[in-house]
Design goal:
Keywords: Signal. It comes from Duganella callida. Pfam families: Peptidase_M19. Helix 8 runs parallel beside helix 9 and helix 12 packs across helix 13. The chain has 13 helices and 9 strands. The longest helix is centred in the C-terminal third of the chain and has 20 residues. The chain starts with 22 loop residues before the first helix and ends with a helix. Helices cover 39% and strands 10% of the residues. 54% of the residues are buried. By secondary structure, it is of the alpha/beta class. It has one domain: TIM Barrel.
């Protein structure tokens, strides 16, 4: 999400009406207590992608979360989302950049307290859901900001951070990301960081990691771990997707796997909602229905101008390739979202598609939110 924002400006006009059958008719209506279904995006955002990138990266402009973005997020039924903040890649001091982001996001959420709630534990997600607000989970997509001092974990924990991804696509001092051929596992310092994450009750996120660091960290952690946004390598053999062995180990640790709405769901073509369903169903076969959910790696508002968006996407892909952080599957002719599953209705449309595939309302509720909440309960408490 945040790592992909630098060059995207505007995009596709493609709306769809709220699905009227299946899960929405059964479970999207309020329950006996008047509550909406719980929907948690394990990696996503709510900013208005149609705004210039400079606006969406600027705390002075509310990170691009304008009135439209907030309205769409609320209308989507979103209960909470894991928002990437801090250093991901590029120039600048990772620690200073990340400290500034933590401060800026805390201030923004406080200003928007009528709509947003900072999530420090699973109870805050329930509170946001109950009060009709949206919970914001602050998370990292790279642990480079730890420098050589694992005690920094505690600093960020006190600032409200609750999810820490160990690596991005490249290498760092903890180990190798998914695009590093050496596939170096968890380093001694990486083990210190994992231990500190466990001690401070933060979620260890293994998205973007190389296979060996993923296996090492899953074994080293004393708490359940997550892969907030990924796909299944068995369906689409791309480095950003996880093998069955990795998926199974996360589930065996009591963890959570979120499937993304990204180009890596298919090989050499634009993926769609059917591809997403295939990855979700495969993950359920490998992990069990109690360990699978969604981490869209996208925002909620749909995109308005396809031609402008495609120009921005072409530049984004060029820049990411030049920086050495691009992954196979990122192409200027394949958009990093699902064109038939976007906008404020996307979560309910997904639920309806799952229902039509024969998945029960209780399983769909788990996929849409309660599986993540279970892991959050076990780690953040």
């Amino acid at each position: 999400m945040h790592d992909r924002r630098s060059f995207l400006s505007a995009a596709i006009a493609a709306g769809a009406a709220m699905a009227s059958a299946g899960w929405p008719a059964l479970a999207a209506t309020p329950d006996a207590r008047g509550l909406r279904p719980l929907i948690i995006d394990a990696l996503g955002g709510i900013d208005n992608i149609n705004l210039p990138a400079a606006v969406r990266d600027d705390p002075a402009h509310d990170f691009g979360i304008d009135a439209r973005a907030m309205a769409d997020a609320r209308a989507s039924g979103l209960s909470a989302f894991n928002m990437t903040i801090g250093y991901v890649f590029g120039a600048g001091d990772p620690y200073e950049k990340t400290l500034a982001d933590v401060q800026a996001w805390n201030a923004y959420i406080q200003r928007q307290s009528a709509n947003l709630l900072l999530v420090r534990d699973a109870g805050d997600i329930r509170r946001a859901h109950r009060e009709g607000r949206i919970g914001v989970i602050l998370g990292f997509q790279n642990a480079a900001m730890m420098g050589q001092d694992a005690r920094r974990v505690e600093v960020f924990a006190k600032g409200g951070v609750r999810v820490v991804q160990l690596t991005y696509n490249g290498p760092n001092q903890l180990g190798d990301g998914s695009m590093v051929p050496t596939n170096r596992g968890l380093t001694p310092f990486g083990r210190e960081v994992v231990a500190e994450l466990n001690r401070n009750r933060l979620l260890v996120d293994l998205s973007h990691s190389g296979a060996q660091i993923c296996l090492d960290a899953a074994a080293a952690s004393t708490a359940p771990i997550i892969i907030s946004h990924t796909g299944c390598r068995a369906i689409a053999d791309l480095p950003r997707n996880k093998t069955d062995r990795e998926l199974r180990l996360v589930a065996d640790k009591g963890g959570f796997v979120g499937i993304y709405f990204m180009p890596f769901l298919a090989l050499g073509r634009q993926p769609n909602a059917d591809d997403l369903i295939a990855h979700i169903e495969h993950a359920i076969q490998v992990c069990g229905e109690d360990h699978v959910g969604i981490g869209t790696d996208g925002s909620v508002p749909q995109i308005d101008d396809m031609s402008s968006y495609m120009k921005g996407l072409e530049e984004e892909v060029r820049q990411r390739r030049a920086a050495g952080i691009s992954a196979p599957g990122e192409r200027p002719d394949i958009v990093p979202f699902l064109p038939d599953l976007m906008g404020r209705d996307k979560f309910h449309k997904l639920a309806d598609l799952l229902a039509r595939r024969g998945h029960s309302a209780s399983r769909i509720d788990k996929i849409l939110g309660t599986n993540f909440l279970r892991v959050a309960d076990s780690v953040w408490s």
